[in-house]
Amino acid sequence: MTRIDPLTDIRSTPRRKVLISGAGIAGAALAFWLNRYGFAVTVVEKAGVLRSGGYPIDVRGTALEVVRRMGILPRLKEAHIELRRLTFLGGDGSEVASVEPHTLTGGVAGRDIEVRRGDLTDALYTAVRDDVELVFDDSIGTLDQSGHEVDVTFRGGDRRTFDMVFGADGLHSRTREFLFGPEAQFHRYLGYCFAGFTMRNTFGLSRELMMWNTPGRAAALYAVEDNDEVHVLLNFTHPKPPLDAFRNPEAQRNLVATVYADAGWEVPGMLAAMRDAEDLFFDGVSQIRMPRWSSGRVALVGDAAYAPSFLTGQGSSLALVGAYMLAGSLADRDHAAGFAAYERNTREFVTLNQEQVGEGDAALFPTTARALEQRNAMLRNLSATPSTKGRPAHSALALPEFMSMT
Length: 406
Description:
Helix content: 25-40%
Oligomer: single chain
Strand content: 25-35%
Strand order of the largest sheet: 1-8-3-2-12-19-18
Radius of gyration: 21 Å
Largest sheet: 7 strands, mixed
Distance between the termini: 30 Å
């Protein structure tokens, strides 16, 4: 267990003690706002260190106002990736269309931000590290809500008591499982699997994405900047979740290699690189849909409660907005009233964005020959003028002002 203790902070009234499981985007943002509202915050993260780098993510719409209020917008603007173009290729590797990114994603050129995941988590970490307790290389082992507090036993052996606990531990949340049971009842599989990793950029790509498609299969190369690394995404249809592969990296590699065995373009080289990739990430494309996000003194936020899937491009934005709304709802309320307000005022925004799964990025992965032809025709006819308004769902929530304790 590795601890980083906060600076001493003396307040006139006892601070409510809270635990956040997960130091990713949702967890770090929630820690920031709960500290702002006077809570004594502990964050536990099972990894030994924060993940750096990572695949680019988007901050759009309402989430931009969240990061502005946090004071980290200037830093994110400095890290912004100005993606220049998206190029789509047919099965033989020939160009189908080349488009300006925002015309497809629903983003707003000059306003929305795209950064490496690690750049956002670094900015959030910097904003909270001096004010909250951070515990790395540990996780929650058990939760007991039988009394008026939450008794937590950590896997490292410590036992502590908190007024509230928050699960910000992602799509496959253990906190959610403690509260509500197996993931399967909330897991909505969307019919795809994907593998992501990095490889050497031997293609001369810079700030662009190239995507090869055949029906039911996509292979993308994403060059974030002028360096020798490129992100690879292999996304393919699969009727049912390949449960045997989720915890077996060798089975993951074998499944992907089988699906793409006859693929052309640069895919054979991608498969070869995948075999040796140390940063391979494999999962099903799915959402989490829950009738409620809390139980007793424990609540969920971000992907743990309402993962929208990468097909919406809204995972990070929902995490940021959800964290802001959850913390603010608790600023001057007890846990029961605060959790109720959080769900009441946030759920419609979440649902609208989860329903974007049929828009934008989802069109990148057609599953039939006819759908692929229609997608290609759509790409050729896209306006070259970027949107100045963006997709309505991205800005469907007007952020309220909450009471501040600092």
